[in-house]
Structure formats: structure tokens, C-alpha cells
Give the backbone structure.
Amino acid sequence: MVSVKKITAQDTYPLRIEVLRKNIDLPHEFEGDLDDSTIHVGVYDENQIVCIGTFMENGIDDLKGKQYQLRGMASSPEARGKGYGKLLLSFATNELEKLNIDFLWCNAREVAVKFYEKNEFIIIGERFINKAGPHYKMYKPIKK
């Protein structure tokens, strides 16, 4: 059985380490992980977390209004392509709507851009490279 729910920061760490930080010298704990306004979401298949995402209050100058940043979204390798990421974003979008958030944005890895575009994100700005590789800044309007 598949379910989506809020989780703790610590619940996200195993997938962050396995998927996002493997062979990359970056921390798996994020500044803001423990802030009261931060939301961590997990998708469970049976009793195992297979997809995670962290949503934190943070803004960029390119967007006007109340914003949240998606950080650390990851799916376990065996869970990819099963729709878990879409479920996670749908759940999180509903939570952010309740908070009257205008925009959700992220620094999307280049390999994930098509996934984000399928989930209504739009590229803003130019491609950039950091320690984790090539990225694009992307955003999604939340308020209807």
C-alpha cells in the first residue's frame, strides 16, 4: 500500500545520503531542516520510505510573493518511474496552498528537468553548475 505523509528531517537522511550525496562532498543535513515552518514529506510503499522532499520557507528575487523552496527531493533507485514523485509534489502543493504560498521553487538537477516540467514547473534563468552538477532554477505557481 502506498501512502504520503509528513515525516521528520531525520527520516529524509538515508535517501539524501544514498541518492543526493553519494560521492559528493556536500552535507545531507540542510540549514533550516529543523525550523518550525519546514515541511518534510515522504512517500511510503508498504512500510518503507521510497521518496522524500523537504519544503522550506525561502525566497528568490525573481519571484514576488510568499515562497517555499523544495530541497532534497529523491526517490530510491527501485522506486523511480512509479509516480511517487508526482504523489509527493501533489501532497506538498496541497499543504502549501493551506499556507497561502504563492510559489514553490527549486534548483533542479538537469537530469530531473523533464520530471519537474511534467509537474508544472517552469525554468527561470540560465543553467548553472554546482558540486552536484548542472542545474536549473525552476518554479511552480501554488496559489490558484
